[in-house]
Amino acid sequence: MRYNCLLFDLDGTILNSNKLIIESFKYTLKKHLNMDVGDSEIVKYFGEPLMNTLERFSKKDAKDMFDTYIKYNESIHDDMIEVFGGIDTLLRELKEIGCKTAVVTSKRKVLAKRGLELFDLLKYFDDVVALEDTEKHKPEPEPILEALRRLNCEKHEALMIGDSEFDIKCAYNAGVDSAFVSWSQAIDYEDISIKPDYIIKDISEILNIIKMM
């Protein structure tokens, strides 16, 4: 196989949480800054750690906004996420052929696992590397390097799969191949400054990529 270690971003790659994230940001920014923001202004920061994004709007209020965002996000979480079609089948097939898998996310671990458990997907992953597991976060390489350490994988064995520029840059900085998925439709491939090794338009393409010799 070309790759036997698959690293997945969570939001926008496995789970469709676009509406959840957008609604949480809008509620928070309106409450604290009386600010109305368009979807595109939020979407461009998808994949970045939450505190980093909030500090873009107000460093002074970021901590209070963080608390508001988390509380509101958790209150609507289960009703506003869904799994992308075909993910369950893909993950099951990856385990059947012996691939190691991990989620690499900027989300807090408790909520990342909660989302996976809602759709009975957690069982397919060998580990979840979340916000608390590294001091530095995407696009820095540490989250991917930590996942490789936990899975006992070499860089050349791994493929990072995600839907944001932060995922692709994280892989580039870690020296790992990357695949950009377009089913989230959060951002356009052309808007990414560092180009991924693969562009995936359909979930079924992932198996074809990893089986290449």
Question: Which features would summarize this protein structure in a list?
Answer:
six-stranded parallel sheet, two-stranded antiparallel sheet, 213 residues, 9 helices, alpha/beta, DNA polymerase, domain 1, 2 domains, globular, Rossmann fold, 8 strands
Structure explained in plain terms:
With 213 residues, the chain is α/β, with parallel strands linked by helices. It folds into two domains: 141 residues, Rossmann fold (3-Layer(aba) Sandwich); 62 residues, DNA polymerase, domain 1 (Orthogonal Bundle), CATH 1.10.150. The chain is 42% helix and 14% strand. The chain has nine helices and eight strands. The strands form two sheets. It has a six-stranded parallel sheet, sandwiched between helices. A two-stranded antiparallel sheet has the order 2-3. The N and C termini lie close together (6 Å).
Computed structural class: alpha/beta
| Separation, N- and C-terminal Cα atoms | 6 Å
Q: Report the mean per-residue pLDDT as an integer.
A: 94
User: In which order are the strands of the major sheet placed?
Assistant: 5-4-1-6-7-8
CATH superfamily of the largest domain: HAD superfamily/HAD-like
